[in-house]
Specification:
The protein is of the alpha/beta class and about 325 residues long. It contains 9 helices and 12 strands. It has one domain: P-loop containing nucleotide triphosphate hydrolases (Rossmann fold, 3-Layer(aba) Sandwich), CATH 3.40.50.
């Protein structure tokens, strides 16, 4: 980890819960994220991977302050050494911290897509040229400039969303599943553009199910499970049979890929209302001990990576 350089954005002990009403109008709190930590550095791409329901998209929404009204948060989100409140997040959103959303429904249905991209461009006198150039990079010809979102194919809409963020002068870009629907050529182009803006000094948080795509471009991989961070490792650690990885889940996730052992992981991720007392992975782990069942591991630094596992060496 980078000890001498401060992260531009820190997520410390983040918790996210939702109020729900059960039979008899009894209210309960559903803890979906617990004790989640993550640091983002300028000039780096950090990819967040994990199965559905692990809290990846909720992390993005918590950073931006766009969680639903029935939610509550704990912990701290720190940007440039300042703990952010709700107003701070609103002021930074779309300016210094930009989201590339998972759903194309975020596009304004009543505005031409070219105009939506131009909103993010600070140099208004150059907006037309900058917008056209980025569309050209994604093989979107001039007729697309005049189209509305409903007239786009899924792949075209995805490229427009990518363009909206890539033309901005943001310091942090959060890309929530930015590559589904892209062909291989467009995928590689999108990833190269993330690398380009990262190399210019921007911190990029890439949330994805596609570990292979993440490994093409990311500097670090954060492995999420059941609403927390189990490991943060260098992308270089994901190789061989996972011997350089620290957490059993990270190794299992890596070895479950088709190009590796294609070995499935037994069991399933626990639901938010059924989280175990100890390690969240204990019911699926081959190394489980009595301590794993009773004690929730704290994050520690092992071999220049961060891991939550009492057995990690």
């Amino acid at each position: 980890m980078k000890e001498s350089i401060k992260p531009i954005l820190q997520v410390k002990n983040l918790g996210v819960s939702f109020s729900q009403y059960t039979k008899g109008l009894r209210r309960r709190e559903l803890n979906v994220i617990t004790g989640l930590d993550l640091d983002l550095y300028e000039g780096e791409i950090t990819a967040v991977v994990g199965s559905s329901g692990s809290g990846k998209s909720l992390l993005a929404h918590a950073i931006l302050g766009i969680l639903p009204h029935n939610s509550s948060t704990q912990g701290k989100i720190i940007y440039k050494d300042k703990v952010l409140n709700k107003k701070d997040k609103m002021n930074l959103r779309g300016k210094e911290i930009v989201l590339i959303p998972q759903s194309v429904n975020y596009l304004d249905p009543l505005m031409k897509v070219s105009n939506q991209v131009k909103i993010s461009i600070e140099e208004k006198e150059k907006a037309n040229k900058i917008q056209r150039n980025v569309f050209k990079k994604y093989s979107l010809d001039e007729k697309v400039d005049k189209l509305y979102p409903f007239q786009l194919s899924g792949g075209m809409a995805r490229k427009v969303l990518l363009s909206t963020a890539l033309v901005s002068n943001s310091k942090v870009i959060i890309a929530d599943e930015p590559t589904p629907g892209l062909d291989e050529k467009s995928l590689n182009e999108a990833l190269s553009h993330f690398r380009e803006i990262s190399d210019r000094g921007c911190a990029v948080l890439m949330i994805t199910h596609d570990i292979n795509a993440a490994l093409k471009v990311a500097d670090k991989i954060a492995v999420f499970y059941a609403g927390t961070t189990l490991e943060v490792a260098s992308a270089k650690d994901f190789r061989g049979n996972g011997e350089n990885l620290r957490h059993p889940y990270s190794k299992a996730l890596w070895n479950a890929l088709p190009q590796n052992e294609f070995k499935p992981i037994k069991g399933s991720q626990p639901l938010p209302n059924e989280l175990p007392k100890g390690c969240l992975f204990n019911n699926r782990c081959d190394k489980v001990t009595s301590e794993c069942i009773t004690v929730r591991p704290k994050a520690k630094i092992i071999r220049d990576g961060i891991v939550r596992c009492i057995h990690a060496t």
